């Protein structure tokens, strides 16, 4: 697991400088409107996502949002613009160069309600029941311990809190494949991925967006999904 984690850190440290994966047309997509981009610092936009989980999260003013694998902070800043001055948006990322870039962008006067934590998303140094919403964008597929990530997301959510994530899933077991930055080799098969979320305790799972990500000779091999689920209670 540590070898996988080290490789991912190296990859995203390069991406934080504007080099690396995206220049190779890999795990990179932009799904932000001109209005959304106008509300966030330009230096946070690296195009490393597979969707826009903020758009489906149903955020409200005053809420606390935690973004797992926040990178340079694009979804943190976007969420912060919705929850407003009475809310909070917290990014968690394990790559020092990404956290440094996000913290630099946070000096923008538009982002006083943001903060960034250097930590692996399998072990989040935040209190239980702190978040109204947990976000993630094309990151959990990279984790070597996905059940731990979903267990941590469940732990830090308040009862009734929402999980809103965009991620990559394999449509069938592709075995060992080489796609260093394509986010497919380390992804779970769809059914296993969704069951892992449910096994963590989440309910009301709903796929809001679903599109092909990688196609091979036998059709779609991997898809980009954006989904919402809920931690029971709180109603």
Task: Give short descriptive properties of this protein.
single chain; 235 residues; alpha/beta; Rossmann fold; 7-stranded mixed beta sheet; 7 strands; 28% helix; globular
Description:
- The protein contains seven helices and seven strands; from the N terminus they run H-H-H-E-H-E-H-E-E-H-E-H-E-E.
- Helices cover 28% and strands 27% of the residues.
- The chain has a seven-stranded mixed β-sheet.
- It has a single domain (2-230), classed as Vaccinia Virus protein VP39 (Rossmann fold, 3-Layer(aba) Sandwich), CATH 3.40.50.150.
- The chain is α/β, with parallel strands linked by helices.
The share of residues in extended strands comes to: 25-35%
CATH topology: Rossmann fold
Radius of gyration, CA atoms, in whole angstroms: 16 Å
Give the end-to-end Cα distance, rounded to a whole number of Å: 38 Å
Structural class: alpha/beta
Biggest sheet record: 7 strands, mixed
Strand order of the largest sheet: 3-2-1-4-5-7-6
Helix content: 25-40%
The figure for the number of domains is: 1
Which overall shape is indicated by the principal axes computed on the Cα atoms? Answer: globular
Low-pLDDT runs of 5+ residues are none
Provide the residue-averaged pLDDT: 88
H/E order of the elements?
HHHEHEHEEHEHEE
Name of the CATH class: Alpha Beta
Tell how many strands the DSSP assignment holds: 7
So, the CATH homologous superfamily? Vaccinia Virus protein VP39
Number of helical segments with 4 or more residues: 7
CATH architecture: 3-Layer(aba) Sandwich
